[in-house]
Amino acid sequence: MTAAAPPSGLSGPAGAGRQPGSTDGGAPDGAEGAPRRRGLTPYWLLAPAGLWLAVFFVAPLFYQASTSVQSGSLEEGFRVTWQFSHYTDALATYGEHFLRSFGYAATATVLCLLIGYPLAYMIAFRAGRWRNVVLVMVIAPFFTSFLIRTLAWKTILSDGGPVVRALHSLHVLDVTSALGLTGDDRLLATPLAVVCGLTYNFLPFMVLPLYSSLERIDTSLQEAARDLYATPATAFRKVTFPLSLPGVVAGTLLTFIPASGDYINAQLLGSPNEQMVGNAIQKQFLNVLDYPTAAAMSFLLMALILIIVSVYMRKAGTEELV
Amino acid sequence: MPAADHPAGPPPSRHPGSPPAASAGPPEKPATGSPKKPKEPQKPEKPPAARSRRSPLRWVRENAVVLAGCAALVYLLLPNLVILLFSFNKPAGRFNYSWQAFSADAWTDPCGVADMCGSLRRSLRIAILATLLTTVFGTLAAFALARYRFRGRSTANALIFLPMAMPEVVMAASLGTLFLNMRVQFGFVTILIAHVMFCLSFVVVAVKARVMSMDPRLEEAARDLYAGPFQTFLRVTLPLAAPGIAAGALLSFALSFDDFIITQFNAGPSTVTFPMFVWGAAQRGVPVQVNVIGSAMFVLAVALVVCGQFVTNRRRKS
Lengths: 322, 318
Known about the structure:
The complex is a heterodimer of chains A (322) and B (318).
Chain A (H helix, E strand, L loop, with lengths): L4 H6 L1 H4 L10 H8 L7 H27 L2 E4 L3 E4 L4 H42 L4 H9 L6 H11 L5 H8 L2 H7 L12 H25 L3 H9 L4 H12 L1 H17 L2 H6 L7 H12 L2 H26 L6
Antiparallel strand pairs in A: 1-2
Chain B lengths: L19 H13 L15 H6 L1 H8 L1 H23 L18 H4 L7 H32 L5 H9 L6 H14 L6 H25 L3 H9 L4 H30 L2 H6 L7 H11 L3 H30 L1
Helix pairs in contact in B: 4-14, 6-9, 6-11, 6-13, 9-11, 10-11
Family (chain A): Belongs to the binding-protein-dependent transport system permease family. CysTW subfamily.
Pfam families (chain A): BPD_transp_1
Membrane topology (chain A): Multi-pass membrane protein
């Protein structure tokens, strides 16, 4: 039961059209095939959810926009002064945080794709009767609070622990510290640990949409490619991979967007040198109580993500995601 | 791409001499998810001599996807194993990061830590209430979006999609700013409002996908057989949509129960949920009991899923 939840929900943007033929065209068909009283009914049905989102999601965004151009302090109260200094200050002070966030998120997304694609491929084509078992195993980590799981990485990567010792004896740590990814013979409190944590936390968000698009591929297309003397690699490159692109796009977005706003991995697995934008926003909001700066930063984060995502979507050539 | 250097399609189709049944069989089986094994029939058709000569390397080449997939599974499940293992640890100091000695103390006394079980109960209460609200609201909205064409439908679709495409920090900070400016008392209610807000979209998407794939002719048939609109909805539409609604409800429960970022911004200082307790503990020293709760949730949920699968399989057979 639970197994069915994340695939249908998380892969939503891509998985919305699970049944070929009766997907996007299905709605109007259903509406026309079954004549219903139109009028106000859909609005009544939408009202509770729509109002909730309008009041608690859309209105706060506008509110935040106005807060970001206010000035003042918690004691004196905040007043709209149309100061855009919060934006410039935030970029000047936390520019590095923004760069780090997007860098880590992009690296984690690429790693998720590299690790997740074989897994999704295996579930879709090679798992046979084990398919449901493996799917459950992909979703199973969700059942434990992700904070506890991130803390478990602290144990796994701990100083002098088995992983550090193994990598040390294989001289892998020498290579990574030469690249500036680690230092002092430790993995914790390094960019590597943060990226590893991000990759781990968002891997299921990559695997599930990938699986749902791979699973829909007609295997006779692959057979046809092989019958026409394509090597396995060519068949994959020309048939399987292009057909799985919607899953790749959905998976990368579902990984990249939350990863760039995350601050838990950086906080638990990193040091102050690995702080991301999320950490800065959290600090401004909860500790410094400088709400205008926090608002300006989260607005900047949103705008930058929007730009990156739209550029990426244009490159990927998939415009229809909803 | 990692999967590029091994067979993308099922190997049998390359061997002209293979029996047609075998070459047609495997590729279709995974799609239907039936309990036939696709790998077994491939093996006998390779000449035994060739197989023994280059078996190890060839086997690795052909199963590289499976090996890489299994490695990814290990990566995914390793933390859970570590959590389970360290729930039996007897830590020397306040931190439970290195193995000291075996002890089942934490399992016999899971609520031995101050405030932990209180925060757990609070999280459960919030998750249940949030799930009830989101399931009702989300299902209504999903029916509206899947079954009707109306002015503003694409706007509504975008409104539903946006919260899923936005980093949690942004939603959390903006809602928190609104509450602050409106001088709303932070606490249970603000957390609940925030959770319903970010879980709604997931329920709508899950239910909408299900409703869209339903055959409208079934409801027409019910009406043709003189069922009233209410009866049609209750006896035909709702049972058909039930799996989607259940999936959405489960997802929303899991999301709400596990949420930290949005909760932290909207909880205030005195209302502590379970993830917030863990976060605080990470700074002060994590009690072993946290691992016990984590492992218990994991084992319980996996057991439920396995039992559910078992029951469905048996029902399907009989």
